[in-house]
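Data availability (excerpt). The following record was deposited with the supplementary files.
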Amino acid sequence: MATTKDEPRGQQNGRTMGQTLDLSSTNLTEFAISKKELNTCSTLILDYNALSVLSEDVGEVLQSLSALSLTGNQLKELPSSFGKLWNLKELSLSENILTSLPKSLEGLCSLTVLKLVGNKLKELSEDFGTLKSLRRLELDENELTTLPGSFGLLENLEILEAADNSLEALPANFGGLRHLEVLNLSNNRLATLPRSFGSLPSLRRVDLSSNKLEELMDYFDSCHCLEKLFLTGNRLSTLPDWIGKLPKLQEISLRDNQLAAKPLPEAFGESSREGLMYLDMSGNFVMELPSTLGLLTHLDFLHLGSVIGELERRNFQNGNWIERLPDNFGNLTLLRELRAEENQLSCLPENFGDLVSLEFLDLGQNLLRRLPDSFSKLKNLRVCLLSKNNIELLPDNFGHLDGLLDLRLDCNRLTKLPDSFTRLTNLETLDLFDNHLIELPEVLKYLHKLQRLDLDEAEESEGGDSTSKQSRHINWTSVLAQAVQKGQSMWQSHEGASTRESSGRSSPSDECSLQRSYGARCTFSYNDEDNLSNLNDDDEDLLANSPDDRQSDSTHAHPSQEVTEAPEENWDDELEHISCYGYDRVYKHPVNDLHEPMGLEPNFAFTPSDEHVMNLPCPCINFDTEEGQFEDADD
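Predicted structure:
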């Protein structure tokens, strides 16, 4: 049952290191290993078993160990003999149900790593500070409300993780942790910090997110090594001047606080200009940004959004209200991600195009009417979210953004797209619904990689008046006719294909026939949940018959269907892709049995059945019908 693996041999406290004994996940319910069996063992792993009790002599049996892991058991307490593990350097007791630690634990004078995550500890002994060799301490996910007064004596502690507790205060001598580099106290109840907090010169990363801090005072003014500071979800309303003078600061999150008006000091960015790469100020009440923001030339991520969900823009109770970006904003040439959604931006600085590294841009739900001509210089832009603005016209050179993959322009006032739009050949997602388009943009047929096109209608207004679909102005019948016509041309051009015309059949390109049959309100939408199975019987008869019906009796085919013979060559290998406004394979040759490989026994009918359409990667065709619309379809 036991498995062993050799470790590299070396010296540990003047003796030779032994082996690792791994008994994890072996359903152990009791500890029954003799001291003799562990004579050459230095590391024992008993993770994820069912141990609930350790014998009183465990401290003597395990004296040779330097590392012991009991993670994921059911231990409620530890025997007092645990304090005899004098050689122990690493101890993991995470994911048990410990409510306290034995006083004898202070005897582990060699302990450097102690992991107690996910227990039910309510307090630590006052003698806890005697573990002076401790370098890493993990106390996350317990029920601690305070730390012992001796805690500041852990002068060699480098990493302290105590997130997800109920800490309301820190000991006054907390500043004694002079070697502390990483501190995580997120998700606690801290309202203040001791003044000695400013005496932690080695701090590099601090996470105080989700507490109740209202001010920072001068806590960090001497933390010149600080690189990452996370203050998300507190109650900060102002920021001290020193926050802009930390020379090594790389990341700072001030998200979801109560910062109002112009919270950043004017000096912000002057000292951090060479280092700051991440700044998150979303979910505050910010109205103005300092001009020195443009000095942060190494900034990589900037989030200024409101993060208020779907609340009405004029009625939200929190969220930023930024009306303009600094004139020197274009200096942020290394910025890769900018989020400034749900603000009051009505224009962008003319040098906005100088953000040449930008890859992700979210300016949704602002008041933008136009984009600067320099916008086309954002050659690295991959995702551009401009939904819910007042944009009436895109720059003529907008198509120069040929790296775009995702473009959202829904809920604007666009009446047409620029001709240069044809150059957006890498575009995969395009949202244009709820605009003022009066015809289907011709440029869409060049977007061959398009996978999602949304030209759907606006929803019904709150007042009860139905806001008409913008798509109602588009001749969708013509679109459908072109799709069928393109498919027919492809079939006829295939080598070896021959057409058999049946008497009385009209061409599928007969737009008038389609107009009479379908009406002018059929729309395309790429939605996997919508499929032709939702059509009524008349619609299904118009679009497709079953494969068996088509082969057994050609007179059952609808007049708008063109029947052809399949080519002898393998259809899937020889397929000439049909491109109808960016959709590949609008029609694809089906087979009788969908479970058979493509091309084994092809059907000869041109139009695929509902069953096949639902299984093909093509846009579904949805029809808005009115009662009685199809009554005269057979006349």
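Summary of structural features: The radius of gyration is 34 Å.
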